[in-house]
Amino acid sequence: MEMMEDVVIVGAGIAGVATAVALKRVGVRALVLERSEGLRATGAALTLFPNAWLALDALGVSQAHPHLCSYNDTGFLHVGDGHGIRTIHRKALLEALAEELPVDSIQFSSKLAVIENEEQGGASIVVIHLEDGTTIKSKVLIGCDGGELGGGTLARTGRTSPFRAVCCARELYWFLTYNGDNMAGDPEQIQKQVLEKYAEKFPSSYLDVVRHADISTLTWAPLKFRQPWGIIFGKLSKGNVTVAGDAMHPMTPDLGQGGGSSLEDAVVLGRHIGNSVINNGGLIVPGDMAKAIDDYVKERRWRAAFLITGSYLAGWVQLGGGKWWMKFLRDGIFYKYLLGRISGLVHKDCGKLPAVSFGDMDHSSKKD
């Protein structure tokens, strides 16, 4: 079977689904390919900072799903004007984003086999071959799955984060980050190591949470990131192909910016593609689209590099130990001079999507 699409997005994570929503808002249909059988709910709590809420406002999601940004009694509050901090379930955000798309926008169980380019009428078309024999031709390809299209080798931090949830009257999430990148794979052993080795001096309330955790949900993962110079000097796009989210800028969780930066990517990419489509009367023109994608990369490159660097430094100094020189770096330099500047990164406004004056067009029927 052969299909023709204007835009194909690989990966139905936060970046992928949010980008599809952004493109829908500017009148462009996108097909999202997801290798899993359904929306992935890996991970538990997701903390959204002001920049994330501003991006959700731009996508129209926070207005359409007010339950995501209402007050609760957990201490994590979202102020109604978009400036606040709140922890929500990753799955709840994914479902809210997916509900903004037509039902056929996400194609599950779609595993990539080969991606190649083909010249068609003087324009470069991306040809995607799936393992089930399906061939999809697309004018634009956006990789939002680090496992499929993320470029470059990730660096190890030497730190690990085991985490998950306690299920009771409400869901309570906990996590722990420690130096070292090895831990037992058995959930009972993970729990035992946390209690007896890594958190033995923690407050009793924290230890009680760990003791009562549903051990079937306990996981761990070594923390990895993309080195910032790989973002600054690396190739993040090629013609009509680019990356977003974790495929572009995987980072440590120390600033809580993984999800927020992915939402920013969606808005910025949607804005540049939308402006190109509007300027061409509702058409996707491959030559102009390559420029739009290049402009998106230029806008996101340095911010992504700063977020990666800030996240890594925040985690490194907090787990640096008690030696005198590390205390000096942590208390005399980082907390005193750098933390405020790094924290300011979470107040970034990624902007709005362009208004579409030509209506909700289905560009799939249009020809270049």
Structure description:
There is one protein chain. This protein is an alpha/beta fold and 368 residues long. It has helices at residues 14-25, 50-59, 61-64, 90-98, 187-198, 204-211, 228-233, 258-279, 286-318, 324-343; strands spanning 2-10, 30-33, 45-48, 86-89, 106-107, 112-120, 123-130, 135-143, 155-167, 171-175, 178-179, 219-225, 237-238, 241-243. Strands 1, 2, 5, 6, 7, 8, 13 and 14 form an 8-stranded mixed beta sheet that branches. Helix 1 (14-25) runs parallel beside helix 4 and helix 8 packs antiparallel against helix 9. The longest helix is centred in the last third of the chain and has 33 residues, at 286-318. The model is unreliable at 71-82 and 359-368 (pLDDT under 50). One of its GO terms (molecular function) is FAD binding. Keywords: Monooxygenase, Oxidoreductase. Belongs to the 3-hydroxybenzoate 6-hydroxylase family.
The whole-angstrom Rg is: 21 Å
- What is the level 1 CATH name of the largest domain? Alpha Beta
Largest sheet properties: 8 strands, mixed
Q: Write down the overall geometry.
A: globular
**What is the straight-line distance between the termini?**
23 Å
The strand count comes to: 14
User: What is the CATH H-level superfamily of the largest domain?
Assistant: FAD/NAD(P)-binding domain
CATH architecture call of the largest domain: 3-Layer(bba) Sandwich
